[in-house]
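Translate structure to sequence.
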């Protein structure tokens, strides 16, 4: 018989910890497949991995860093220590079942619930059953919940590996191929042994790839050391620090005034016209930042200057902070670069579409993760179909109805749009509630400059929703709202599929505050409101109680 509890949470990373804190009054059961908190900070970090934002921009609203004014970027271990301090301070570890992997979820609620906004909790009747395996045991234990929060995240667990032509994959390569996720599991000595005095190719040009290249270069100092070659398909803007021509970076994108220049969901006609006419100013800001980066960094020298505007990388959460030694190692010849749209393996390394070959002993794949697969693997078939299509995308609203065992569940709202904008998106109200999956929430699938704040404010919102302090809008309204957000993302950047809200994050938080009955303006005066950076401390619940 399944063990019953009101709320279950899957995952104890950043989002899972935030959800546990906000829902702690319901005594949730938290399933964590590993032996530690932290998610990607524990299982996908390298020795040199650091936070990409200052401490003050990556903290819980009610638990500041002890040295929050320190301008240096914390190491991954410091981030883990902070998370454990938070969990210990609020006595959250008692809710977590470590080494407990969720392998199956069953829907046991009323079938009439599907396609409706549920009443969440209070009925005492289970809606979901969750099957788990403890310590890799073959025996499955079952739990039942009224409400389930999925916090498995977009990163880790499921590596995304390129698909290669027949007989041109890793099987023909005589060296070693490893994904960054597996590299992160090695200790320092093992990583050095893997790459020292070896010809290494790192595939990718985002944060993890850049960190890998630096670690490889550091292990290959001296005359016997070999160069590491980064194989780059798409260039992205990188920044050395959070200052541009002596001005703080937050002035350009993280104040209410700066975000006023950008499109946002649910804007009226007047604001739409204003955004249209402010386009030259937005482009000027982007050019201003690009000019600084081109002056500060040897982008032209190494052919690393992207063709697209800086704003597009910021709007898609793909801006990376460079390690201090990155270009100095490139100047020493320890890091080299090769741009290529297509490549495959040959027995001695990597071959490119221009027929050139790169010799390699080790190929490290920093090619990302398949976060959607993690969710699809555990959801019931009925709801898994919401994530599937022949293209591998998720065109939720293409179908008039979805049926299971001959029974139709969802109404004609599913024909809401045929727009390919929905490809790869998981439509959720406030990035959290799926209109057609009852009594389930998803946290950690919306990105911003501070993913911790993005997760926490949604969990605060979710706790009040579950507690009945406000109600969700109609399904039609939720679909319209989600469509508006996707349209804004698509109009802002070619990389819109990443589900990033960085250019309208304050407005997003405003709407969440208003739904909870909070004031959306969080500063002490109008000047600070307009020109000061927003961060998690502005949304401390104690402030709301005092107000």
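Result:
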């Amino acid at each position: 018989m399944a063990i019953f509890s009101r709320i279950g949470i899957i995952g104890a990373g950043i989002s899972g910890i935030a959800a546990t804190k906000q829902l702690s009054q319901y005594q949730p059961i938290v399933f964590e497949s590993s032996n530690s908190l932290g998610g990607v900070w524990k299982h996908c970090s390298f020795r040199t991995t650091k936070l990409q934002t200052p401490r003050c921009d990556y903290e819980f609203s009610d638990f500041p860093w002890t040295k929050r004014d320190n301008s240096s970027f914390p190491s991954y271990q410091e981030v883990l220590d902070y998370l454990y301090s938070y969990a210990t301070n609020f006595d959250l570890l008692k809710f977590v079942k470590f080494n407990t992997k969720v392998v199956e979820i069953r829907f046991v609620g009323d079938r009439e619930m599907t396609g409706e906004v549920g009443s969440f909790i209070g009925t005492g009747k289970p809606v979901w059953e969750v099957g788990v395996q403890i310590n890799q045991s073959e025996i499955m234990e079952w739990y039942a919940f009224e409400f389930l929060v999925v916090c498995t995240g977009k990163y880790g667990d499921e590596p995304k590996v390129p698909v290669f032509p027949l007989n041109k994959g890793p099987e023909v390569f005589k060296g070693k191929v490893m994904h960054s996720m597996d590299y992160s599991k090695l200790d320092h000595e093992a990583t050095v042994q893997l790459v020292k005095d070896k010809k290494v190719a790192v595939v990718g040009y985002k944060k993890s790839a850049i960190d890998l290249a630096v670690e490889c270069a550091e292990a290959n100092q001296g005359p016997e050391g070999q160069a590491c070659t980064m194989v780059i398909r798409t260039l992205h803007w990188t920044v050395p620090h959070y200052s541009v021509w002596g001005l703080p970076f937050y002035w350009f994108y993280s104040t209410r005034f700066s975000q006023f220049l950008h499109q946002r969901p649910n804007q009226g006609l007047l604001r739409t016209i204003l955004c249209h006419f402010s386009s030259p100013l937005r482009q000027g800001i982007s050019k201003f930042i690009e000019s600084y980066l081109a002056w500060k960094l040897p982008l032209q020298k190494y052919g690393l200057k992207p063709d697209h505007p800086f704003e597009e990388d910021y709007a898609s959460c793909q801006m990376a902070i460079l390690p201090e030694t990155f270009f100095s190692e490139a100047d020493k010849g320890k890091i080299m670069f090769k741009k290529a749209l297509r490549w495959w393996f040959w027995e001695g390394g990597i071959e490119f579409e221009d027929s050139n070959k790169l010799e390699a002993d080790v190929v490290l794949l920093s090619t990302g993760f398949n976060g959607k697969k993690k969710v699809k693997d555990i959801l019931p078939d009925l709801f898994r179909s919401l994530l599937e299509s022949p293209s591998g995308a998720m065109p939720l609203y293409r179908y008039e109805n979805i049926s299971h065992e001959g029974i139709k569940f969802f109404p004609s709202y599913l024909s809401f749009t045929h727009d390919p904008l929905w490809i790869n998106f998981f439509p959720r109200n406030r990035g959290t509630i799926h209109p057609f999956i009852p009594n389930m929430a998803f946290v950690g699938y919306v990105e911003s400059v501070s993913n911790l704040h993005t997760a926490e404010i949604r969990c605060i919102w979710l706790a009040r929703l579950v507690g009945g302090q406000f109600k969700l809008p109609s399904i039609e309204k939720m679909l319209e709202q989600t469509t508006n957000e996707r349209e804004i993302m698509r109009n802002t950047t070619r990389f819109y599929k990443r589900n990033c809200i960085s250019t309208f994050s304050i407005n997003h938080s405003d709407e969440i505050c208003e739904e909870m009955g909070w004031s959306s303006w969080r500063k002490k005066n109008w000047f600070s409101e307009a020109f000061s950076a927003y961060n998690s401390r502005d949304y401390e619940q104690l402030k709301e109680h005092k107000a």
